Amino acid sequence: MNFNLLKGKIKEKAYTQKDISEQIGISLQSFNSKINGKRRFTLDEVVSICKILKIEDPNQIFFNQ
After folding, report:
1. Which run of H or E residues covers position 19?
2. Is residue 17 a contact partner of residue 35, using CB atoms and an 8 Å limit?
3. How many CA atoms within 13 Å lie on the side-chain side of 45?
4. Most buried in the list 9, 42, 54, 60, measured by CB within 10 Å?
5. C-beta separation of 61 from 6 below 8 A
6. Three-class SS of residue 16?
């Protein structure tokens, strides 16, 4: 997962991590754990984040090694 690219997309779209966590229905603490690589996003969370941030190719962010 490309954490820096995801963080950049969040800033680019003028969202905060709190905004995204609320919209996908998880706590900010859980979101922070996931965006910092301590836990994994679920498929539903990935889909929701892509819709919110209008990410057309989730592979470059979520499925990149």
Report:
1. helix 17-24
2. yes
3. 15
4. 9
5. yes
6. coil
Q: Has residue 65 got a pLDDT over 70?
A: no
pLDDT for position 44: 97
Put simply, whether the predicted model's pTM sits higher than 0.70 gets the answer yes
pLDDT in tens, 35-59: 999 999 999 999 999 999 999 999 9
- The string of pLDDT tens digits covering residues 2-41 is 999 999 999 999 999 999 999 999 999 999 999 999 999 9
CATH, domain 3-62, list 1.10.260.40, 3.80.30.20, 1.10.150.320, 1.10.10.10: 1.10.260.40
What is the amino acid identity at position 30? S
